Structure prediction request, 183 residues.
Amino acid sequence: MSKRRLRLGTLGFVCAGLLGSALIVCAEEPAKVLSNEEIQRALAPAPAAVTRSFTPRGLARREASQSDQSVNLNIPFEYNSSALKPQASEQLKQLKLALTSSALGSDRFIVAGHTDAKGSAQYNKQLSLKRAEAVKSFLVAKGMDAARLETVGFGSEHLLTPDKPDDASNRRVEIRDLGSGAH
Prediction:
């Protein structure tokens, strides 16, 4: 029996079977867990660009927004629920390590839930908020300061793959660095 790997969006599937008339069985493969170092790199502020002192009339230089530092994580939840699946804990442990690292330890973050476009917009918005709150609850239970985390649910308003609104890659939790500052 041979094994074939098929990548579909951010989810992977392992299929095994014989060619010909054999039944092919596919099972979902766990999504890749980002390490705390990978999360830190994604959330780290971009290095300041070298700029010239010349400013053309009528144009003003704008500072880069802190909101550019974000990472999308595939956090598995039970179907149609905000209950975390057991396999979510490894990714969330890596996230907690990153957010409490010396590089990010004084920053505040938004935990944003996103869904695909299946279902009503109102339901998806509520579900995505509950999922963001479940991630925050996990992090707080592991010792993170709740005041450093804000939650928001976007539902299907900001699809990762707008050309495929029902794709699983749209179901994600986004962590956005707000920078350091008073709580």
